[in-house]
Amino acid sequence: MNLETKWLEDFVALANTRSFSASARQRHVTQPAFSRRIRALEQAVGVTLVDRSTTPINLTPEGQLFLVTARNLVEQLNECLGHLRGVSMAREALDIVAAHSLALSFYPEWISRLQEGLGELPTRLVAMNVGEAIHVLREGNCDLMLAYHDQYATMQLDAEVFPSFSIGQVKMLPVSVPDAKGKPRFSLESKDTIPYLAYTQGAFLGRSVRMLLKNDPLRLRLRTVYETAMAEGLKGMVLQGVGLAWIPDFCVREELKSGRLVRAGDEKWDVPLEIRLYRCSLVHKPGVEKLWRQMMKLPRDFLQA
């Protein structure tokens, strides 16, 4: 197989932009020349990598698999050349994608604790919804993914291809603002209709709450008055006294402590969650490999926030 490195770099650029014209500009070539190079790559590999029938373009299933290999080869070659040319050996930042609530309220404390055991750990963090994060991880476009573990397997991540570390056990709590007596203004024990602040249909945390309520008559008394995909958005509305919501405990720790929020139900209404750090085993970036080996040697309490 006769492959040119520039073809691999072209393919990675195309996967990022989903546009032949935008990729051609990025690679400083004309669009016809760029298209010819992608065709040449496909001929060398022996399969169609790009579905040209859609706009923006998509990768074929074979193209998605090959993308991980292409990124690996380009990154490893660039790193090797950099070392040979005397480029600084400073530790490269790891790219991490995380669910919004984890990025805002969980990650800072956890990464600080992890660095106590590993030393300085440069990272770049991007918050996004779980579906987008999984797509980015599958395509090898990030190093690590921080997400809630899905016990119902709706994430469809093969444990061998996407190994993970358990790094936290948390709960989603039903919370409300207090009334004048310090009791929840909206309580799950109430027999009346309850204003409910819900996660949108596709939100990961929403699935967990729906499973809790699936066979319980309580769901008939919950009147949805607001929806959003983000836990922090629901928390803001709860603080305004609009209704009650289920929020991860680490997001409302300070508000519960100060009394600005109170539990809206007892522990039977808690939703247990596990937080995991995922990687793709097909990606062999040295920084990720080193971090994974180091984490395996740490005591379990160092991994848990």
Automatic annotation (TrEMBL):
Residues 1-60 form the HTH lysR-type domain. It comes from the Bacteria. SUPFAM superfamilies: Periplasmic binding protein-like II, Winged helix' DNA-binding domain. Keywords: DNA-binding, Transcription, Transcription regulation. PROSITE patterns: HTH_LYSR. One of its GO terms (molecular function) is DNA-binding transcription factor activity. Belongs to the LysR transcriptional regulatory family. This is LysR family transcriptional regulator.
